[in-house]
Amino acid sequence: MRRVHIGLVCLIALVVCVGVFERPPKLADYDPERHAEFADTWNDRLHLAYWEKWGSFERDACQAMVDDFNRGQDALFVHYVNTSQVDRKSMLAIMGGCPPDVVGLWANNVQPFASADALMPLDELMAESGLSPDRYTPQYLDIGRYNGRIYALPTTPASVALFYNMDHFAAKADQLRSAGLDPDRPPTTIEELDRYADVLNEFNDDGSAQIMGFLPTEPGWWNAMWGYYFGGTLYDEESGQVTPDAPANLRAVAWVKRYAEKYGRDKLLQFRSGFGTFDSPNNAFIEGKVSMEIQGVWFPNFIRRHRPHMNFGVAPFPCAEGVPGPRSYLDADVIAIPRGCKHPKEAWEFVLHTQRGGLAILSRLQGKHMPVRQPPPLFRQGHPNLELDVFEQVAASPHSFIRPQLPVWQEYNDQLSRAFDHIWNYPLPADALAGLSGPALDAKIDGLCREEIETTYADVRETIQRKLDLYREYTARREAKEHHGR
Amino acid sequence: MGADLRKSLKGYAFILPWLIALFVFVGYPFFAGLYFSFCDFPPMKDPMFVGLENYTNLCTDPVFRRSLGVTVIYASVAIPLGVFFALCLALLLNTRIRGLSFYRVVFYLPHLIPTVVVALLWLWIFNPRYGLLNLVLRLVTTVADAWTNVFFDLPAALVAESFVRPSVTLLLAGPLIAFLAFGPWLRMTLAESPRWRLFLRICGVITLTLSIVTTLYATLHRLLPVDMQKLHSPGWLSDGNPLPSCVPFAPSWALWGIVIMGMWGVGQMAVIYLAKLQDVPTELYEAADIDGASWWSKTRHITIPLISPVILFNVVMAIIGTFQVFAEPYIMTGGGPEDKTRFVAMFVYDQAFRYQNVGYASAIAWMLFLLIVGLTLLAFRISRKHVYYAGR
């Protein structure tokens, strides 16, 4: 027994010793391999932590921007910390009172973080530093705005457009001409897109798809946003109501449903299950299984990585007839200063650098455009993204849109996805559609599923509006309580 | 200080680290969660007391109702199936066959593989186009269609005037009738030639099985044409339609996928059964053998009553486990399609970490807790008359 006691005491002593004497790594630790060029000024610099989400080539771009800042002065040194699940880790760090100095968040984090007072407002700092809001594309700046104040600034922006396989267009040139379509240009309206898709489709003998001209579910990342291309919106700013069942949105859903029924839900499911992951040679568009696809400004990077000689074109994604365009869904990564960080002033110096010289480095190395109205004169020269002008054009369009800046957006988006899946899978009687084609088939499909679409999206409206109202009520109560407490 | 007290203090001193951890990491979150369930609590703000509002909102929340429905449907399918298959497996593993240890290891192995790996593996197995499962299904259903078509009008079942093909059906029905008619005769009179008796019995069993399976397959084609057509290459995790499609509250194909995947891990349950099975006194079986009891009688009257406490244990663990399913659907389907695999545990996670409603998530977690406690108590209550404890 005595030996057991002695053993236990020794074990505890060992644990205590490790706890006391083990020196954890520190941010300012010097690494001769990576920091050799900063050796002379290393100890004189203030070290800042910058948490950012990116790995791979996007990380290299961020690191180049950080290096540019570190080389440009000798008072500060920013450490790029590659952080997975950056939003959750930042939230915990901020709540724990130990946040990084600068954090790179997703666009949809701005609202919850800002409403919780977890980010520093940047308006005054921008004004002091002469960083005018007017230099930005308005939608990109709005992504970082909450309750009229700016809490985050855009870093790398994203816009989306129509990618089309020019070889497929050339191979079906005669058929396209016969259908009254021009094989040398992409479609300009959604109605035209459907006609192009019809001609470009190829099926096997058993009726299964070999090539699909277009699939609204590919890649399926913006299924909730189709309504905007039909002139709809998901939120009405004036009334403060969510509008998933606005007529234009329902028109978009009916359009998607027509694809499901015309080509067969189960057949399309089998077809899609053969697609590889996005960043692979088996990507549906890269492999040539889908002729036209909505994708983002980043996509040419991946096409050229996996199929360098692919003959593709990019154009603004078409809108429904009568809807003004061009329009694109706009998104952006943002950079912010967490509330409670140890060196806010110095952190702002770095953020300011990212917005001045940094944006050009970052956007260029990531193959994207800049979130500003006027990029530097040499920005486009030798830019790796040869389709940049299209993305700049759609990003600058006043018709382009961002997601609704709502506190319940995540939930809203999930419910829209569920509704979308539900309508896609909603079974229609096969015998009712048998023998129909063209506009008659479309009309029949619309007629058979109209009620289900209306009911499903009305349910989404009710559910989300209730959540939104509840959020507003709690916020008002909380503010009243705080006001009363003072 | 008395010797007893000193002994007690020493004991407490030894368990003190565990006690501290219990209070800090289990006790505090448990009761804090209860308090938060009465609060509006975005993680970066202070909790604000709102009374029972979270619970009343829960009752009218369609997403919660859907996720609770999915969980209950899953539990009502997965628990009986899991308990049944595990018991069958344990009975098989309890027989004296060559390589028994190997089989025991093989069936237990899935339980040792991390959940994430299992989920990713099954994602491939369930791939509608290239997955192993559909590859086998395509082969089996093609052969089954061809075979059944000889006797019944299969593909044209929807439009065919006659479902059964009378002339050829005799080919199937003839041996069946013969077997049913002469089965007892075979059993009684061919005792003198055991080989012939065995051969005829095997033929009889094969014929009977084929007859039943073929008729069942054809009937299913008749009753559920859409589902049987889908069975040739189901969409599994991407298909939110119910199976069978004529039952509105039936599990979706996606949920069946998760159930099937869950069956892969019944080895652990089977090992627990096995431990108890080997504890059943052999004298009881010997006595039953002397009385001329069949295998089924021995299983029903000796094995199952004696292992019933372990069956209860496994049922209770299965109730708790199925109501907390999270990792597999989270990785494989993310709750889709159409929320058909969004379990309550996933809803709790979404509310707390994606939608920033810690108070609401706590209320759901407490509802789930109460539901599990209620079902467990119900299981204990129902089991009173059916569980046999040898010690009492």
Q: Could you describe the 3D structure shown?
A:
The complex is a heterodimer of chains A (about 475) and B (about 400). Chain A is of the alpha+beta class and about 475 residues long. Chain A has two domains: about 40-150 and about 330-395, 3-Layer(aba) Sandwich (D-Maltodextrin-Binding Protein, domain 2), CATH 3.40.190; about 160-330 and about 400-470, D-Maltodextrin-Binding Protein, domain 2 (3-Layer(aba) Sandwich). Helix content of chain A is about 45%, strand content about 15%. Chain A is built from 18 helices and 13 strands. Chain A has helices at about 1-20, 55-70, 85-95, 110-115, 125-130, 140-145, 165-170, 175-180, 190-200, 245-265, 265-270, 285, 300-305, 345-365, 390-395, 410-425, 430-435, 440-485; strands at about 45-50, 75-80, 100-105, 145, 150, 155-165, 200-205, 210-215, 235, 240, 290-295, 310-315, 330-335. In chain A, strands 1, 2, 3, 6, 7, 8, 11, 12 and 13 form a nine-stranded mixed β-sheet that branches. In chain A, α10 packs across α16 (about 410-425), α10 (about 245-265) crosses α18 (about 440-485) and α16 packs antiparallel against α18 (about 440-485). Chain A is globular and about 85 Å long. A two-stranded antiparallel ribbon of chain B has the order 1-2. The two termini of chain B are about 40 Å apart. Helices cover about 70% and strands about 0% of the residues of chain B. With about 400 residues, chain B is mostly helical. The interface of A and B includes residues 422 and 463 of A.
